[in-house]
Amino acid sequence: MSQVQVESEFPIKKNLARRTRLSRIKNQCIRFISTQRIGLISALFIILVIIVAISAPVIAPFDPVEQNREAFLAAPDVQHLMGTDDLGRDVFSRIIYGARISLLVGFATVIISIILGTIIGMISGFFGGVVDMIIQRVMDSIMAIPALILALFIAALLGPAVKNVIIALVIIEIPRFARIVRGEMMRIRETNYVEASRSVGANALRIIMRHGLPNMMAPIIVMASLAFGQTIIAEASLSFLGIGTPPPNPSWGLMLSNASRYMESAPWLVFFPGVALSLLVLAFNLLGDALRDFLDPKLSS
Amino acid sequence: MVEYIVRRLIYGVLVLLLMVTFVFVVMRAVPGDIVTLQLADSGASEEQIEVLEAELGLDKSIMAQLGAWIKGVVQGDLGTSLWSGLPVTEIIKERIPITLQLSIMSIILATLIGIPIGVISAVKHNSFVDHLLRITSVGGLSIPNFWLGLILLTGLALLFNWIPPLGFQSFFENPIVNLQQMILPAICLAITLSASIVRMTRSAVLEVLHSDFIRTIRSKGAKERVVIYKHALRNSLVSVITLIGLQVGYLLGGTVVLESIFSLPGLGSLIFETVSARDYPVIQAAVLIFGAMFLLVNLVVDVMYGWVDPRIRNS
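YS: structure for the whole thing
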């Protein structure tokens, strides 16, 4: 019986491998959904925000930059759910459009940092020696500057633009990803399966792609989710200081910076963008925690 | 131990050197410098620009400028501000105490809030209280501290008609006014920090509570209070202290935004003011000081391990 099975499996080995991988991912997802309720809710919330951000022109009742001279600093009512700002712009619409900037900066920064951080960490961890030493000293010296101060420094030098915010935040995040990847790579390098793979003549690239990457996805995913939250806060902080997203773009940080001048006359301007910001960051942090519990039970208590 | 400290210090200096070089080169590689900023609209001729550049020492190569600057730093001279012409040492000396006071107040507040809550959360493991505290602490991590600052200012102004006194005064000039000005930003910084302290304390205490020696102590009939405070908490402190050391980077970064909201003339707001003005010597010095503070705190943390944990002290 088993003899027959082995024979029939052989020609479709590749297909089968892909199928088992797919079904494993499916099983993982089902297990995540059933065990991590808070994580699931957070993920759904994030998906909702993404959908709202993409379909902003359809959902938003007003143009986010359109000024309305009849309604300066109007309190929240039926027409303007979250009131209007000092130029009569609808806060609700601006918050919906603002999600685009937060998500754009978040996704761009995290994805670019993962790619660059992984490449640097892999090189450092796989080759070791002098290469590793030089890379690590450079990473250490970047991390020795408090993150927000480095971001402020770079963003202020480059001038206010979304692109420059992303550059500044990527420079901050790269060493953090590189450090994790390096540690994982050094651990994986010493395992038996890598030694076996090396002994049958696999080259560095194959070992990294075939054994390195798949085995370090868990810490990278957890780190990415937490980095998301930090990145979104950092973007808001830079915009708040006036060196992030340039006006009149509806960035949440910029809206808060503007609101700080009308704290007493129009407190809703301070309230709503901050709630939006906190909720999105909270969702990413909770998702990160859930992923950590799920992917690496050793790390959680 | 002494050898270890010396080795760490040398390594720290190396990292600072690299860091300063990075800042130095990036700053000069980006288009726009103080000369063009100052003479932007005056229609100055090439010659005038060259004269001013030579005056400020900006005509030499980057490496020559870097060498000259480092030589000055070693001798305790941080240069002079390109805008105000004041010695950078003086400017920094005026600003450091504010940022230091703010950081220290935040760390003390965060520890006072964070450690007891973390212990309660661990002791009441998996209870309703624990879940509530855990969710609150993730919430604390997610609220941007500058928003917290704005909310506190707005709330106090609307509800009690109170705003912090204007015009900064140092603690030695007028402690009451000073504390009124410092307490709100300190609370904002402390809340995020205490949230991470809660999380770390909780997991560290839980881990220790599950270890064999705690079972032994309990079986000897020790009081629960003694078990928790004398044994579990004490053994968890190493990880909590490490966390605080690592979070100092976040704390120092946070001072920039909070100093700007609460108009405190600290080191953070100095960086913010001078980066856009391209006042190279001041920025370099401020970044250097921030880096040095961060590295020093982490060195102190490592030394404190020995003090908290005799096993490390004696090895």
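YS: worth flagging: Chain B has a mean pLDDT of 83.
IM: good catch. Also DSSP finds 13 helices and no strands in chain B.
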